[in-house]
Design brief:
Layout: H1 3-12, H2 26-44, E1 61-62, E2 71-73, H3 86-99, H4 107-110, H5 114-127, E3 131-135, H6 138-149, E4 155-159, H7 164-172, E5 176-180, H8 185-194, E6 201-206, E7 208-209, E8 214-215, H9 218-227, E9 231-235, H10 250-253, E10 262-266, E11 277-281, H11 283-292, H12 294-297, H13 304-319, H14 322-341, E12 353-359, H15 361-373, E13 376-377, E14 380-381, E15 391-396, H16 403-419
Parallel strand pairs: 2-13, 4-5, 4-6, 6-9, 9-10
Antiparallel strand pairs: 1-2, 3-11, 7-8, 10-11, 12-15, 14-15
């Protein structure tokens, strides 16, 4: 019996095929040998990223396979606590019954249902824009935006710390590509002055930079765009739905509502936490994306349960700002107590991304392990996710946390901080 048949039979029995040797070609073996050395160096540097296994729904309290008791989760993008909200879950279940599990098609063939169009209308209305388009992720929405809109006669000007999806999306377009120093308006203005012969110029920025929790100076960016006749694109993944007085994101927080030309964001964080992304803006731009954006044209439609969860999330946050307000209170409590304890907490004072800077990658990993033993689930972030020497624990607050939960997390930080001599 051949090795291939043994593997197929083992897979049929549900085995992980650990007892069956893997046949490799000489070229594959050489590559794997090379990669082993690279993987070993990652482990030695203390930047290896292990995946903890969660065996419960995403929530403030979760079950982790390595822990006997439930632990408090302080590192999810579940900003409003909607990932396991009863009404959101019920909407997903209902959608399976009424619209099926999936579409088996891209949107323009036979993959558009009424619920897709309804959600796009809700998104456009939420952001006060003309139209919106759904993608399978915000990474895809950004990957399909710049290439579709910009040509060699144009220029795109990007903050140097923009998200990888913006960076990769810009790489795909043929426009002149320029970067300005992080949130440095003098550098941005210099580039705007130097590119005035371009047909169109587009300034691209994160609304909130997810590794540092700091907010883009959107009013200054929009002022410069107006002065030099440029367009503004904002990725609002870490703002839309939960930041600003009513959760309208960075433009609400910075008092620039309606001024950015295009906004992209995600459905996989505050808005139900499942998956999906979108772009919203002028109807002509959205129409062009529907006709030319490659990730949209060549990716399956968002599954009905995902559409339904996001749609219900928009309903919930449109009805009341209670969750947004609760998140703001939790954020203030955490930041205040942590700074008083002596920790270096990065980011904007009002934003629920609260990076606790530790510096050393191995320390960050060990610190996170210590926190888990205290019943707090957090993760150490190190290179290449953040620059070398800037390792941190990125804490994310949620409206799903109680004040007692927040205080418990801070107490655990103080315990581990003293044990590791991060604080005195």
């Amino acid at each position: 019996m051949s090795l291939e048949i043994l593997q197929v039979l083992a897979l049929g029995r549900g085995s992980l095929v650990r007892d069956v040797p893997v046949a490799r070609t000489s070229s594959q073996a050489a590559l794997c040998n090379f990669l082993k050395g690279e993987l070993d160096s990652i482990r030695e540097a203390g930047t290896w990223k292990s995946e903890r296994i969660i065996i419960s729904p995403q929530s403030a309290f979760i079950n982790v396979s390595s822990q006997k008791d439930k632990v408090l989760n302080f590192c999810a993008n579940n900003y409003l606590g909607l990932s396991s909200h009863p009404e959101v879950v019920a909407a997903a279940k209902k959608a399976i019954d009424t619209h099926g599990a999936g579409l088996s098609s891209v949107r323009f063939i036979c993959g558009t249902q009424d619920i897709h169009k309804e959600l796009e209308k809700k998104i456009a209305k939420f952001h006060d824009r003309e139209d919106a388009i759904l993608y399978t992720s915000c990474f895809d929405s950004n990957a399909g935006f710049f290439e579709t809109l910009l040509s060699p006669e144009d220029a795109v000007i990007s903050d140097e710390l923009n998200h990888a999806s913006i960076i990769d999306g810009i790489r795909l377009c043929k426009a002149e590509r320029l970067r300005y120093n992080h949130r440095n308006m003098e550098a941005l203005e210099k580039i705007l002055k130097e590119t005035q012969k371009s047909r169109f110029r587009l300034i691209a920025t994160d609304g909130v930079f997810s590794m540092d929790g700091n907010v883009a100076p959107l009013k200054d960016i929009c002022d410069l765009a107006d002065r030099y006749n440029a367009l503004v694109f904002v990725d609002d993944c870490h703002s839309a739905g939960f930041f600003g007085k009513t959760g309208r994101g960075t433009e609400e927080y910075t008092e620039t509502r309606g001024r950015p030309d295009v906004i992209s964001s995600t459905l996989g964080k505050a808005m139900g936490g499942a998956s999906g992304g979108y772009t919203t803006g002028p109807k002509q731009i959205i129409d062009l994306l529907r006709n030319k954006s490659r990730p949209y044209l060549f990716s399956n439609s968002l599954p009905p349960p995902v559409v339904a969860t996001s749609s219900k999330a928009f309903d919930l946050i449109t009805e009341t700002a209670e969750l947004v307000e609760r998140l703001a209170v939790n954020t203030k409590l955490f930041r205040t107590r942590m700074i008083e304890a002596g920790f270096n907490v990065l980011g904007d004072k009002d934003h629920p991304i609260c990076p606790v800077l530790l510096g050393d990658a191995k320390l960050a990993s060990a610190f996170a392990d210590g926190m888990l033993q205290e019943g707090i689930f957090v993760i150490g972030f190190s290179y290449p996710v953040v620059p070398k020497g800037k390792a941190r624990i990125r804490v994310q607050l949620s409206a799903g946390h109680t004040l007692q939960d927040v205080n418990r997390a801070v107490d655990a930080f103080i315990t581990i901080g003293r044990r590791t001599k991060v604080i005195s």
